[in-house]
Amino acid sequence: MSIDKLDNKKLVAFIPGTIVDVKVKVGQQVKQGDILVILDAMKMHNRILAPINSTVKEVSVKPGDRVCKGFIMVVLE
Amino acid sequence: MPLKNKIEELKKRKEEVLQGGGEQAVAKQVAMGKLTARERIIALLDEDSFNEYDMFVEHEARDFGMDGKTLHGDGVIIGTGSIYGAPVAVFAQDFTVAGGSLGFMHARKITKIMDYALRMRIPLIGINDSGGARIQEGVNSLAGYGEIFWRNTLSSGIIPQISVILGPCAGGAVYSPALTDFVFVVDKISKMFITGPEVIKSVLGEEISQEDLGGAKVHAMITGNAHFYSESEYECFEQIKKLITFIPWNNTRKARKFEPKDPKSIYNIGDIVPGDPKQPYDVRNVIRAIADDSDFFEIQEMWAGNIVIGFGRLNGETVGFVANQPMVMAGVLDVDSSDKAARFIRYCNAFNIPLCTLVDLPGYLPGIDQEHAGVIRHGAKLLYAYSEASVPKMTVILRKAYGGGYIAMSSRHLRADFVFAWPGAEIAVMGPEGAANIIFRKEITEAENPEEMRRLKVEEYKEKFANPYVAAAKGYIDTVIEPEETRKLLLHALEVSSNKVADRPFKKHGIPPF
Fold first, then answer.
1. With contacts defined as CB-CB under 8 Å, which chain B residues touch A46?
2. Surface-to-core class of residue B55, CB atoms within 10 Å of its CB (0-12 exposed, 13-18 middle, 19+ buried)
3. In this complex, is the C-beta atom of A4 within 8 Å of any C-beta atom belonging to chain B?
4. Which of these, B3, B70, B265, B287, is most buried using a 10 Å CB contact count?
5. Any B CB within 8 A of A2 CB
6. Any residues with CB less than 8 A from the CB of B197 and at least 6 apart, and which?
7. pLDDT tens digits for B471-491?
8. What value, to the nearest 5°, has the Cα angle with vertex B256 and ends B251 and B260?
């Protein structure tokens, strides 16, 4: 059993919201702190940042998408 | 026998105890990447300041073959010393002696130093590294834990109590750290749980490692049981030393005053908070732009990051900072962030540390999981803690302050002494979009172009209500200030509130929603 909350390769929506912008593509190299996605929720354009240096493995959102809490938006290698 | 020989004997006896559990056990401890109990105390305290007591205590167990066994110091070291000159009482469990297991005399040594710390009104630091109850001593072990918990509770709010988890701390033993003020954990060394992986497997059939169940990261990031996380024991000791500089010896004193220092010029307070309320930023930089030397000592950094808590100094005096963090979950209040801030506020109040609250939040987090997790009672902790706190309370509204969030974040109504707002502050019962949809529902639905009408009404609401002047007109805000004036005003507020009197009716204690 692993602990999802410590698994920093899956970027999930903390709260339900709307995707404003997707800054990365599959295969792209990212550095820790790079913006991956911007999620409009709770009166804020929340920046979803890369927690580690990695490569983008999956992107499952596009601008305008509504996502629910816990939705996996980006997966890193 | 001449005195000289007796001194020799004393030295010999001491030398023996200093071996701890012996060479093999010490080698095992080292192999686990851990320091020994004595090395820990030496590393933590000022040089040559440690004085040990009860070195020659021996256990009294007679059953299960225990009568023939010698356990040096009964597996725990107690004594007093100092940290940057401040006196502290310390105990450190010695895992090399019977796995640091807690027997009757072991517990009695711990309770002795706890009693001493309380009597002398000095901080208590407990280093935990123990396999748990000493099974051979049966109910006497349990009695020992109970005596420790009772003293933790008795001392709570009188002397600072610090727990350092440097090994296993399992079963009932974890409740002592949980009753103390600050818990320190170290990656790959600390393990805390009520029931370990073996019990979980046999009862529930679930398999999990010790690390994943109750390792340092779990408690620093998921449970919130730990307040400080570090990668090594030495880093952990530096954190403890720094904490000691921010807190007083006991609840009748103030924390030590330091030489005042201006914030560093790289933190330009006017440039940190974006004008657009939808843009996030790191509120810790606002704290750094305000605090002496831009030094902010954050607590529970990795847990409930949507609220930031920690110590800094204003004009040399320790201040507890509480701030919404817009860059984490939009800075919402929820179950965990309310719990985190409320406990910190009560700590500051108990130890005469003034509070400075920085406000920028959209409100409480909506959702089924939050409601069902009890956000009503957890959120209420924040209201309770702020209302109860009688230390000087200063509030700065940086940007958004809506609804229940506005009230909860040290508002005038909960008796903040000073409430300042920046010109970009938006103080209203709810955000413009939501409010316009309710107030102007009829106009919007009946309009030829509802979208256009909604936009116009949102604008109208924004202009009328999303500003600091409605609240300022009622005196709920004392003054609207430019960001650059913030530190100057906070220093002044602190100065004029140094003799604050906030008498409350007598009560045995309140009933906070915990």
1. 280, 327, 329-330
2. middle
3. no
4. B287
5. yes
6. B207, B208, B209, B210, B213
7. 999 999 999 999 999 999 999
8. 140
A1, A3, A42 member nearest B206 (Cβ): A1
Domains and CATH numbers, chain B: 3-246 (3.90.226.10), 269-429+467-496 (3.90.226.10), 432-465 (no CATH)
Residues from chain A contacting residue B327 (CB–CB below 8 Å): 46-47
Instruction: Provide ipTM, 2 decimals.
Output: 0.90
Mean pLDDT of chain B, nearest integer: 95
Pick from A6, A43, A45, A46 the residue to mutate for testing the B interface (most B CBs within 10 Å): A43
The total domain count for chain A is 1
* Identity of the residue in A3, A16, A43 whose CB atom sits nearest the CB atom of B400: A43
Token reading at B113: 């130093």
Q: Does A5 touch chain B (CB under 8 A)?
A: yes
- pLDDT at residue A2 in the model: 43
- Written as six digits, the tokens of A11 are 């970027």
Domain containing A72 equals 4-8+17-76
Query: Which has the higher per-residue pLDDT, B133 or B61?
Result: B133
